[in-house]
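Tokens as discussed.
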């Protein structure tokens, strides 16, 4: 019998440990993603890409309004 097959912990303790481990993993992933998004936002703000994206979306909206004026109420 392999050592990992010889688990004698009770079921309640396994569930609690796995639940706490899952919460810790989710918290770490959330904090890590927030840090990455913040850094990416700072980089995009410094290279002035955001106004370009805003102008691009505005052009798309204006194109749609020109082609389908019935969509505007």
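Sequence:
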């Amino acid at each position: 019998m392999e050592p990992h097959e010889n688990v004698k912990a009770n079921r309640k303790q396994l569930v609690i440990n796995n639940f706490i481990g899952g919460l810790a993993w989710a918290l770490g992933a959330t904090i890590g993603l927030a840090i990455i998004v913040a850094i990416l936002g700072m980089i995009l703000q410094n290279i002035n890409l955001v106004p370009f994206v805003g102008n691009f979306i505005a052009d798309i909206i204006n194109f749609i309004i020109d082609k389908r004026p019935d969509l505007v109420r």
